[in-house]
Write a structure and sequence with these properties.
With 383 residues, the protein is of the alpha/beta class. It folds into 2 domains: 127 residues, Rossmann fold (3-Layer(aba) Sandwich); 229 residues, Nucleotidyltransferase, domain 5, CATH 3.30.420. It is built from 10 helices and 10 strands. The strands form 2 sheets. Strands 5-4-3-6-7-10-9-8 form an 8-stranded mixed beta sheet, sandwiched between helices.
């Protein structure tokens, strides 16, 4: 317990005062952290009961005053998966609509690594409280809406599998809009059936709240044609309901294309970021990680996305802009001060699926109840 107290103090002081190149939360985010705003909750557990006792202790604290706005969860990343307190802690906090950030014992105990990580920890803190740290400048006046469709496979309390789908909506400048969840489905066919009305509801709201010049739906290469058809019907229905008609497209994105783009004029044949190779109309390769990367390329392959437009509504809108939006969303990442190599519409979906699976390992019914309530809809709690 004493070691846990020391770790909590170390994290708090680093957040408030800064450490290494990190100047502190007040300088980076404008959020001041005083002792009167912070509270430690030290949880003593027994082997084999860590998950349940973490859950019970956190729920008990959340029922008392003062209200909790945010939680830093300090635990080992090497816990037994059958008794992992991470999912239990996250379940308790999500149930109360409280965003949180996990910081491992191992990171806190590695001084040099901890110094470098603090900036990203503070960034996640700021974003999960609703802050907008930055975006990318759009080449045109108005922004596109990009919606990434994803799903997580989890287990029910009876041991059977289920699929929970979701739609993550971001603007093409990188600004997070919302995440909408679909009711759990027992099979892929059921997933398609629940996706359509849930997506209609999500898009009806988003169309009413945002002025858009185009709408792009991103799906992965693994989704079937019937999902594309369901998405198309959902968009048309949502537009009819609102009487708002925006040109839209459904684009399939592969982050592990079989193709490699080479630059024969470069000594290592590595192409530059932003290189585009058109394979045919509405199908192209996009290099998102190229020769300016600091890490050497020996033994690894530059990242090339493969984009294929599966559907386009009536109207003239350029596939080149679709590629430009995907590239922009591959360059903005609120999870850390480093660019990623795939659009955040799909990267965030991947992170969300991981989080849902960990929470559902402890409390399967949370996926069908609390997450569906929408209390964290406007907050990217999963990044």
């Amino acid at each position: 317990m004493e070691q846990d107290r020391e770790r909590a103090n170390k994290l708090y002081l680093a957040l408030r005062n800064g450490i290494g190149s990190f100047a502190g939360c007040a300088r980076l985010t404008g959020i001041t952290l005083e002792k009167s705003q912070a509270e430690k909750l030290l949880i003593s557990t027994r082997p084999g009961k860590q998950a349940r006792e973490h859950y019970d202790a956190i729920v008990h604290r959340l029922t008392r005053s003062p209200q909790v706005d945010f939680a830093f969860v300090i635990q080992s990343r090497n816990a037994d998966h059958r008794d992992d307190p991470y999912g239990a802690s996250k379940a308790a906090l999500l149930g109360a609509g409280v965003p949180s950030q996990f910081v491992s014992y191992e990171l806190l105990d590695a001084d040099q690594q901890f110094r470098y990580a603090m900036t990203n920890i503070a960034l996640s803190f700021f974003v999960k409280l609703g802050g907008i740290p930055w975006n990318v400048k759009a080449a045109r006046g108005s922004a596109s809406l990009v919606v990434g469709i994803g799903r997580a496979e989890t287990r029910t309390e009876m041991g059977s599998s289920q699929l929970t789908g979701f739609a993550i909506s971001v603007l093409s400048d990188g600004q997070y809009i919302a995440t909408d969840y679909f009711p759990p489905a027992k099979s892929y066919a059921d997933f398609i059936r629940v996706l359509e009305p849930a997506l209609v509801s999500a898009l009806t709201d988003i169309l009413a709240r945002n002025s858009l010049d185009r709408l792009t739906i991103h799906v992965t290469r693994f989704e079937r044609a019937d999902l594309v058809h369901a998405v198309k019907r959902a968009v048309l229905t949502a537009q009819d309901r609102r009487g708002i008609y925006v040109p839209f497209e459904v684009v399939r994105i592969s982050t592990d294309s079989d193709f490699t783009v080479l630059d024969l004029d470069h000594p290592g044949f590595v192409s530059g970021e932003g290189t585009v190779v058109n394979l045919r109309p509405a199908r192209a390769l996009l290099v998102t990680e190229g020769r300016v990367e600091k890490a050497v390329w020996h033994g690894r392959k530059p990242i090339t996305l493969e984009l294929t437009r599966e559907h386009k509504s009536e109207g003239d809108f350029d596939f080149g802009q679709t590629i430009a939006d995907a590239f922009a969303l591959s360059s903005v990442n609120w999870r850390g001060f480093n660019a990623i190599t795939q659009p955040i519409s799909l990267q965030y979906a991947h992170l969300l699926a991981e989080q849902i699976a960990k929470v559902a390992d402890f409390m399967p019914n949370l996926v069908g109840t609390v997450i569906q309530s929408g209390q964290l809809r406007d907050v990217p709690w999963f990044i």
